[in-house]
Design brief:
By secondary structure, chain A is mainly beta. Helix content of chain A is about 0%, strand content about 50%. Chain B has about 110 residues and is mostly beta strands. In chain B, strands 2, 4, 5, 6, 9, 10 and 11 form a seven-stranded mixed beta sheet that branches. In chain B, a hairpin with a 5-residue loop joins β4 and β5. The chains are: A mainly beta (about 120), B mainly beta (about 110). At the A-B interface, β6, β10 and β11 of A face β5 and β9 of B.
Chain lengths: ~120, ~110
Protein backbone atom coordinates (compact mmCIF):
# COMPACT_ATOMS: atom_id res chain seq x y z
CA UNK A 1 0.00 0.00 0.00
CA UNK A 2 1.20 3.48 -0.76
CA UNK A 3 2.41 5.35 2.25
CA UNK A 4 2.14 8.79 0.64
CA UNK A 5 -0.53 9.60 -1.93
CA UNK A 6 -0.55 12.71 -4.07
CA UNK A 7 -3.61 12.51 -6.31
CA UNK A 8 -2.95 15.57 -8.46
CA UNK A 9 -0.36 14.77 -11.16
CA UNK A 10 -0.57 18.33 -12.48
CA UNK A 11 -2.18 21.66 -11.64
CA UNK A 12 -2.48 24.97 -13.45
CA UNK A 13 -3.07 28.06 -11.34
CA UNK A 14 -3.36 31.73 -12.21
CA UNK A 15 -0.61 33.94 -10.82
CA UNK A 16 -1.45 35.56 -7.46
CA UNK A 17 -4.10 32.97 -6.62
CA UNK A 18 -3.73 30.59 -3.70
CA UNK A 19 -3.18 26.92 -4.42
CA UNK A 20 -3.61 23.77 -2.36
CA UNK A 21 -1.60 20.65 -3.12
CA UNK A 22 -3.08 17.47 -1.66
CA UNK A 23 -1.23 14.83 0.31
CA UNK A 24 -2.60 11.88 2.27
CA UNK A 25 -0.48 9.43 4.21
CA UNK A 26 -0.74 6.06 5.85
CA UNK A 27 1.04 5.13 9.05
CA UNK A 28 0.33 3.31 12.29
CA UNK A 29 3.07 5.18 14.14
CA UNK A 30 2.13 7.75 16.75
CA UNK A 31 5.26 9.80 16.12
CA UNK A 32 5.94 10.82 12.55
CA UNK A 33 6.76 13.85 10.48
CA UNK A 34 5.59 15.22 7.18
CA UNK A 35 7.61 17.28 4.74
CA UNK A 36 7.07 19.18 1.56
CA UNK A 37 9.87 19.60 -0.96
CA UNK A 38 9.97 21.70 -4.13
CA UNK A 39 11.85 20.47 -7.17
CA UNK A 40 12.26 23.12 -9.89
CA UNK A 41 13.26 22.24 -13.44
CA UNK A 42 16.91 22.56 -12.42
CA UNK A 43 16.41 19.38 -10.40
CA UNK A 44 17.50 20.19 -6.85
CA UNK A 45 15.32 19.28 -3.87
CA UNK A 46 14.37 22.33 -1.82
CA UNK A 47 12.94 21.85 1.66
CA UNK A 48 9.79 23.95 2.18
CA UNK A 49 8.04 23.00 5.40
CA UNK A 50 7.83 20.37 8.13
CA UNK A 51 4.97 19.23 10.40
CA UNK A 52 5.46 16.91 13.33
CA UNK A 53 2.63 14.62 14.34
CA UNK A 54 2.51 16.12 17.84
CA UNK A 55 2.60 19.72 16.67
CA UNK A 56 -0.68 21.30 17.70
CA UNK A 57 -0.51 24.19 15.27
CA UNK A 58 -0.22 24.00 11.51
CA UNK A 59 3.28 24.78 10.28
CA UNK A 60 3.84 28.00 8.35
CA UNK A 61 6.89 29.29 6.47
CA UNK A 62 6.32 32.57 4.68
CA UNK A 63 3.83 31.95 1.85
CA UNK A 64 3.73 28.22 2.63
CA UNK A 65 1.46 26.64 5.17
CA UNK A 66 0.64 23.05 5.90
CA UNK A 67 -3.00 22.17 6.49
CA UNK A 68 -2.55 19.21 8.84
CA UNK A 69 -5.66 17.13 9.54
CA UNK A 70 -4.47 14.24 11.64
CA UNK A 71 -7.75 12.31 11.84
CA UNK A 72 -8.05 12.38 8.06
CA UNK A 73 -4.32 11.67 7.63
CA UNK A 74 -3.88 14.56 5.30
CA UNK A 75 -1.10 17.15 5.07
CA UNK A 76 -1.97 19.55 2.28
CA UNK A 77 0.42 22.30 1.24
CA UNK A 78 -1.11 25.75 0.75
CA UNK A 79 0.79 28.37 -1.22
CA UNK A 80 -0.67 31.83 -0.89
CA UNK A 81 -0.36 34.48 -3.61
CA UNK A 82 1.33 32.20 -6.12
CA UNK A 83 4.24 33.48 -8.20
CA UNK A 84 5.69 32.40 -11.52
CA UNK A 85 8.72 31.05 -9.65
CA UNK A 86 6.47 28.58 -7.85
CA UNK A 87 6.19 26.52 -11.03
CA UNK A 88 7.86 23.22 -10.11
CA UNK A 89 7.28 19.65 -8.94
CA UNK A 90 6.15 19.39 -5.34
CA UNK A 91 6.73 16.29 -3.26
CA UNK A 92 5.12 15.30 0.00
CA UNK A 93 7.24 13.00 2.15
CA UNK A 94 6.95 11.24 5.49
CA UNK A 95 9.72 10.21 7.81
CA UNK A 96 9.53 6.63 8.96
CA UNK A 97 11.80 4.07 10.55
CA UNK A 98 14.09 2.09 8.28
CA UNK A 99 14.08 -0.80 10.70
CA UNK A 100 11.63 -1.25 13.55
CA UNK A 101 14.35 -1.89 16.12
CA UNK A 102 16.45 1.17 15.42
CA UNK A 103 15.88 4.90 15.45
CA UNK A 104 17.23 5.34 11.95
CA UNK A 105 14.75 7.04 9.70
CA UNK A 106 14.28 7.68 6.02
CA UNK A 107 11.96 9.75 3.92
CA UNK A 108 9.22 8.07 1.91
CA UNK A 109 8.08 10.22 -0.98
CA UNK A 110 4.87 10.58 -2.92
CA UNK A 111 4.87 10.70 -6.71
CA UNK A 112 4.62 14.48 -6.80
CA UNK A 113 2.41 17.20 -8.27
CA UNK A 114 3.61 19.37 -11.13
CA UNK A 115 2.42 22.92 -10.48
CA UNK A 116 2.35 25.43 -13.32
CA UNK A 117 1.64 29.08 -12.59
CA UNK A 118 -0.01 30.93 -15.48
CA UNK A 119 0.77 34.66 -15.91
CA UNK B 1 29.04 26.92 2.83
CA UNK B 2 29.12 23.95 0.40
CA UNK B 3 26.63 21.62 2.14
CA UNK B 4 26.22 18.38 0.15
CA UNK B 5 28.10 18.18 -3.13
CA UNK B 6 27.81 15.52 -5.81
CA UNK B 7 29.93 14.73 -8.85
CA UNK B 8 29.47 14.32 -11.72
CA UNK B 9 26.33 16.29 -12.61
CA UNK B 10 25.67 14.21 -15.72
CA UNK B 11 27.00 10.92 -17.05
CA UNK B 12 26.21 8.56 -19.89
CA UNK B 13 27.27 4.95 -19.44
CA UNK B 14 27.18 2.00 -21.76
CA UNK B 15 25.55 -1.22 -20.58
CA UNK B 16 28.01 -3.23 -18.49
CA UNK B 17 30.26 -0.30 -17.57
CA UNK B 18 30.94 0.67 -13.98
CA UNK B 19 31.23 4.02 -12.26
CA UNK B 20 31.30 5.71 -8.88
CA UNK B 21 29.05 8.61 -7.95
CA UNK B 22 30.76 10.87 -5.44
CA UNK B 23 29.05 12.55 -2.49
CA UNK B 24 30.69 14.81 0.09
CA UNK B 25 29.21 16.84 2.93
CA UNK B 26 31.00 19.41 5.06
CA UNK B 27 28.44 19.67 7.88
CA UNK B 28 29.89 16.84 9.99
CA UNK B 29 26.64 14.90 9.65
CA UNK B 30 26.73 11.30 10.78
CA UNK B 31 23.87 10.07 8.63
CA UNK B 32 24.08 9.95 4.86
CA UNK B 33 21.71 8.54 2.25
CA UNK B 34 21.53 7.69 -1.42
CA UNK B 35 18.21 8.00 -3.22
CA UNK B 36 17.24 7.48 -6.83
CA UNK B 37 14.47 9.30 -8.65
CA UNK B 38 13.01 7.65 -11.71
CA UNK B 39 11.18 9.82 -14.27
CA UNK B 40 7.87 11.13 -12.91
CA UNK B 41 8.38 9.48 -9.52
CA UNK B 42 9.41 10.33 -6.01
CA UNK B 43 12.73 9.35 -4.45
CA UNK B 44 13.52 5.83 -3.27
CA UNK B 45 16.25 4.93 -0.78
CA UNK B 46 19.14 2.85 -2.14
CA UNK B 47 21.62 2.74 0.76
CA UNK B 48 22.29 4.68 3.90
CA UNK B 49 25.05 5.07 6.45
CA UNK B 50 24.89 5.96 10.15
CA UNK B 51 28.58 6.77 10.42
CA UNK B 52 32.03 5.95 9.11
CA UNK B 53 32.37 2.23 8.52
CA UNK B 54 28.63 1.47 8.86
CA UNK B 55 26.29 1.09 5.90
CA UNK B 56 23.01 -0.68 5.28
CA UNK B 57 20.56 -1.37 2.47
CA UNK B 58 17.48 0.67 1.70
CA UNK B 59 14.53 -0.22 -0.52
CA UNK B 60 16.31 -0.66 -3.87
CA UNK B 61 19.95 -1.74 -3.26
CA UNK B 62 20.38 -4.28 -6.07
CA UNK B 63 23.12 -3.33 -8.53
CA UNK B 64 24.79 -0.85 -6.16
CA UNK B 65 27.47 -0.82 -3.51
CA UNK B 66 28.56 1.84 -1.02
CA UNK B 67 31.39 2.50 1.38
CA UNK B 68 31.89 5.04 4.13
CA UNK B 69 35.52 5.40 5.14
CA UNK B 70 35.16 8.98 6.41
CA UNK B 71 32.35 11.09 7.88
CA UNK B 72 32.46 13.41 4.87
CA UNK B 73 32.33 10.99 1.94
CA UNK B 74 29.73 8.44 0.86
CA UNK B 75 30.41 7.16 -2.67
CA UNK B 76 27.90 5.02 -4.57
CA UNK B 77 29.31 2.36 -6.89
CA UNK B 78 27.43 1.00 -9.89
CA UNK B 79 28.76 -2.31 -11.17
CA UNK B 80 27.66 -3.63 -14.58
CA UNK B 81 25.35 -0.74 -15.42
CA UNK B 82 21.92 -1.62 -16.80
CA UNK B 83 19.28 0.56 -18.53
CA UNK B 84 17.07 0.15 -15.44
CA UNK B 85 19.62 2.24 -13.54
CA UNK B 86 18.91 5.29 -15.70
CA UNK B 87 17.78 7.75 -13.07
CA UNK B 88 18.66 10.86 -11.11
CA UNK B 89 20.68 10.07 -8.01
CA UNK B 90 20.50 12.23 -4.90
CA UNK B 91 22.79 12.11 -1.94
CA UNK B 92 21.51 13.51 1.35
CA UNK B 93 22.71 13.95 4.91
CA UNK B 94 21.28 14.67 8.33
CA UNK B 95 22.88 15.24 11.74
CA UNK B 96 21.17 12.28 13.37
CA UNK B 97 18.87 9.39 12.51
CA UNK B 98 15.78 11.28 13.57
CA UNK B 99 14.77 13.36 10.62
CA UNK B 100 13.61 16.92 10.89
CA UNK B 101 15.27 18.06 7.72
CA UNK B 102 17.35 16.20 5.21
CA UNK B 103 19.97 18.16 3.26
CA UNK B 104 20.09 17.13 -0.38
CA UNK B 105 22.86 17.40 -2.93
CA UNK B 106 22.11 18.75 -6.42
CA UNK B 107 21.79 15.29 -7.98
CA UNK B 108 23.56 13.28 -10.67
CA UNK B 109 21.67 12.50 -13.87
CA UNK B 110 22.76 9.08 -15.15
CA UNK B 111 21.77 7.55 -18.47
CA UNK B 112 22.64 3.95 -19.32
CA UNK B 113 22.36 3.04 -23.00
Amino acid sequence: AQKITQTQPGMFVQEKEAVTLDCTYDTSDQSYGLFWYKQPSSGEMIFLIYQGSYDEQNATEGRYSLNFQKARKSANLVISASQLGDSAMYFCAMREAIHEDFGNEKLTFGTGTRLTIIP
Amino acid sequence: NAGVTQTPKFRILKIGQSMTLQCTQDMNHNYMYWYRQDPGMGLKLIYYSVGAGITDKGEVPNGYNVSRSTTEDFPLRLELAAPSQTSVYFCASTPSGSLYEQYFGPGTRLTVT
